Amino acid sequence: MKVEQIDDRKKVNKKVGYLGPEATFSHLVVKKRFPDWQHHSLGSIEDIIEFVKTFADGEERIGLIPIENSTGGMILESVDLLLEEDFHLYIQEELSLNVQLALIGRKGQEIKEIYSHPTPLFYCRKWLKTKFPRAKIQKTASTSEAARIVSENPYSAALSTRLAAEIYKLDILEFPVLEGNVNLTQFFVLSPFPCVGSTAETTIVFSVKDEPGSLCSFLEPFRDGKLNIKRIVSRPIPGKLNTYLFLLSVQAGKESVPLEKALRKAEQYAIWLKSLGSYPIRETFNV
Q1: Would the keyword Amino-acid biosynthesis turn up in this protein's UniProt record (predicted)?
Q2: How far is CA 127 from the centre of its chain?
C-alpha cells in the first residue's frame, strides 16, 4: 500500500480500532471524529496496535488509544507500548474528550451498589460519599462494562455515559455528574504512516546514560530553542536497574526549525532516540 492512498479516501476501505466495548469514551470519540469509518471494538491497547499493523492492500487502518487523563494521569499501558523498540507506528493526531459522566440505573429504585472504572470512581469519590454513603463501590474494566453489569443487577447504578444508558436501556439518574468540573482525556490516533499535513506537536522516545546531568543535558536544547515540553514520562527498562526510557511531547511540528536544531543537539546525549511523528492537535469533543 502506498502512502498516497491514505489521502484518496474514496478508494480505500477505512477502519478504525478503539478500546471497547461499545459506549466507552474511546467509542464516543471514534463516533464523533470518524463517523463514516468502520468501527472495530477491541479488547486491549495492544490489540489496537496489532489491528493497525495488520492492514491489507486497499484499506486504511488507524487506531485510537488513550494516552493521558487530567485526573488519573498517564495511561501507562499506552506509554509502555509506545516505548517498545519494535513499535513502528506513527501518531497521526491528538484528540481530547471532555468527559461528562452520567449516573445511570433505574428510576425510583434504591441504589445499593455503584459500578465504574477506577478513574471515574476516584474522580467522583467525594460526590459518591456524599450522595450514596451506604452504597458499595465496585470497580470494573470500563464504564461500558459497568453499565452492562447494572443492566443485569437491580438495586445498582453505574458511572458511565448517556450512550451506555441508551444501549443497555437504563435511565439517566443524573447528568452531568460534577457539573462544571473539567475532566479531559487525551488520545493518540495511530497509523502505519506519518502525518503528511501541517503539524503542531511532536513526540519522541529516548534513553540517556545513567550518570549525573544526562537528562538535563538532553533537555537543554529544547529550553535554548524556547520550545515548550508538554509531557515527559519515564518508565523503567525491565531487568536493568536505574535505567529508564522516556516519552516526550513538545509543542512544535515538523516544520519548526528550532525543533529540528534541538533534536539534532539532544541526540548527542541520547543512547537511543526515535520519533513517533509530528501531528496536529484536533478540537476537544464534549459528551
Answers
A1: yes
A2: 25
Q: What are the pLDDT digits (tens) for 53-97? A: 988 888 899 999 999 988 778 888 999 999 988 899 999 999 999
Could you tell me if residue 81 is inside a domain? Answer: yes
Rg over alpha carbons for the chain, rounded to the nearest Å, is 21
Judged by DSSP in three states, 185 sits in: strand
**Structural domains in the chain (count):** 3
pLDDT of amino acid 179 = 66
Indicate the DSSP class of residue 267: G
Using an 8 Å Cβ cutoff, are 110 and 176 in contact? Answer: no
Range of the domain at 214: 201-279
In a domain, 107, yes or no: yes
Of 158, 283, 263, 143, residue with least CA distance to 206: 263
This prediction has a pTM of 0.85
Residues 160 and 110 in one domain: yes
What's the CA gap between 75 and 72, in Å, rounded?
A: 8
Q: Which of 233, 232, 221 is nearest to 264 (CA)?
A: 221
